[in-house]
TrEMBL record:
Source species taxonomy: Eukaryota, Metazoa, Ecdysozoa, Arthropoda, Hexapoda
Principal cellular location given in the protein's record: membrane
Species of provenance: Drosophila willistoni
Bilayer topology annotation: Multi-pass membrane protein
GO cellular component annotations of the record: plasma membrane; vacuolar proton-transporting V-type ATPase, V0 domain
GO molecular function per UniProt: ATPase binding; proton-transporting ATPase activity, rotational mechanism
Domain of life according to the entry: Eukaryota
Record's protein name: V-type proton ATPase subunit a
Signal sequence region: none
Amino acid sequence: MGSLFRSEEMALCQLFLQSEAAYACVSELGELGLVQFRDLNPDVNAFQRKFVNEVRRCDEMERKLRYLEKEIKKDGIPMLDTGESPEAPQPREMIDLEATFEKLENELREVNQNAEALKRNFLELTELKHILRKTQVFFDEQEGGVNHTTESMTRALITDEARTAGASMGPVQLGFVAGVILRERLPAFERMLWRACRGNVFLRQAMIETPLEDPTNGDQVHKSVFIIFFQGDQLKTRVKKICEGFRATLYPCPEAPADRREMAMGVMTRIEDLNTVLGQTQDHRHRVLVAAAKNLKNWFVKVRKIKAIYHTLNLFNLDVTQKCLIAECWVPLLDIETIQLALRRGTERSGSSVPPILNRMQTFENPPTYNRTNKFTKAFQALIDAYGVASYREMNPAPYTIITFPFLFAVMFGDLGHGALMALFGLWMIRKEKGLAAQKTDNEIWNIFFGGRYIIFLMGAFSMYTGLIYNDIFSKSLNIFGSHWRLSYNTSTVMENKLLQLNPNSTDYVGDPYPFGLDPIWQVATSNKIIFHNGYKMKISIIFGVIHMIFGVIMSWHNHTYFRNRLSLIYEFIPQLVFLVLLFFYLVLLMFIKWNRYAATNPMPYSESCAPSILITFIDMVLFNTPKTPPTGCEVYMFWGQSFIQTVFVLVALACIPVMLLGKPWKIMQARKLANVQPIAGATSDAEIGGNSNGGSHGGAGAGGHHDEEEMSEIFIHQGIHTIEYVLGSVSHTASYLRLWALSLAHAQLAEVLWTMVLSIGLKQEGWLGGVILTFVFAFWAVLTVGILVLMEGLSAFLHTLRLHWVEFQSKFYMGQGYAFLPFSFDAIIENGGASSSEAE
């Protein structure tokens, strides 16, 4: 089979590169993205490798670019992203890049430091301006006397004793300090002054209305102006220490009004000059950042490519002459010629005359698993890999999941309207995928939705199909072909009787089946609508489930034949298939036989009243019970020879259990006795008896064909567990598919509840007021429909479908014990933000 159904054949190769050409050759391989290098220096510290200095230089360049990026984003400057990926620069170009980044960083840091100093100066002048304005009122009040202050926002902190002493000794000469403080610190500042100075200071404060910019971080802060009057040098020292503790800024403020006016004029002049200089500084900074923003994306790509190349070169070994680099790598077998062409291009670019050598090596290691994907199959492959990466050359379930996953989802989510909403959302993302992919975001939920856009579209499209089969659109039916029932009741009888039923054994039924899906007459049925849907959906759930499991068992046949596991083919695949077919596929056949032979219009003994229960029939079959006596005129069995066939089927199915349990271990034990072979490391039991499990024609790159020999006790235990799991799992997995029936009914009932309890209320309103009410009711119904029935129910159905594939389907053939192929790819490194594939691993 092609690589779509199995992983690519891989080869372990040894690569010899001349030291001068190694950089260019690895660069070409990174553009190609088809080579996974192995670390040949696992015991060497990362700081002791040959190219560690180059990696450090790249780290330093990345740091400078991140600094530029932060400054560009701070100013809101758009960064040019052409979507192109420039080639990795030559090693000699690193010096030019380093010089450019160093110059930009130094220039930007100098500009930022100058701007910060100017902003700090501007802040001080602005605060001084507010102090000179606000304190004029304070000085006027001081001249009029402290005792006349009655405002509620201030306190007279001079005690009565001080006032009395001052009156006897003449006018009191008060000293003062003025400054600004953060508004939120003012209450605590005032309390501390009161306690430390024992009420012998006088504080006045006024808020600065406009917020001020903090030059350190650019935040807007709210401050207040204060002035403190006191008497004596001791209080002055104490007040200044308190101001320093609360980080209040003190400014000189003259006592004379003329000096204050002169200082205010000087401050205003300096502020105007500072505004001019600040504007010029910001313009220069903006020009520098705009010029850097044009090339920043390309610079990031170049630096990350250089870093990835040197990180990869650190995985190589040096030969004894120090002139040749030796590497080991996994490559897809079909792409060896392409890789050799890339190596030649790299050699030509470097100007080397020594061609690179790519030798294929023989190995018994398990190669990595590489499944080629495109934008359509990538999401489905991700669902499979989330369970476990396939073992090398194991059958890949992803191609079949493209159909089975959305179909089983649609069985549970079947509604034409809800499916259309989901399909339109997926189609919108598909149509806009180029633009949406370019808008990279860190929103993980959106990335999940966008990554699964093709899954969402297919789930919606399949749900539209099953919605047509169920004849269900927002809990209502489509009368496309008309009904195949003819009512013999009048209108009043139909409207007044809630328990009316249609009799198929009458002229009410035309006799021809409905052309497509369910007859719309079932939408108006009240008493037996759910009963009918129960029987229908329960049976199709079992039918789809058994077919799905049988298909999974058949997939295991491809694994056994490809890996030449003759024992597993004879003693596992055949008994498993026979067991599943004779019991559970026979159960499916009974359903079709019942549908075909029994009908309301058929005469006895195949009338509807004679139809046996499939479940009771299956239980009697497994327990070898004699069926109960049927009603008069009916037959015990559905067809001739049923009892004998059922007995044979059960006996053969039971006989398959010891074959699965003991057949393979017994054959291994017999072969060891005949060959007189003791347990030897180097070959598995399957390789001994059933042929080379890696299919020796695949270059020696085996898929688990060379592990340590198992003891016979371990083989018996492993086989017993596997057999018990399969036998019991066949029963539980069949019942597990009933979730298709349960979630389908739940989805339909929720849709009907929303229509009945919400939207129908608005539709019953009349007049213009009814139109207004209907608008709001419809909006509420639409929100509930999208939020509950599409999103929540869709997520529930998605998870149940995922479980059916992981457990019920893939457990029949899929081991998932491999490891992913992680090639050295510049595209993947840049997409992951600079981490190399080996680092990401």
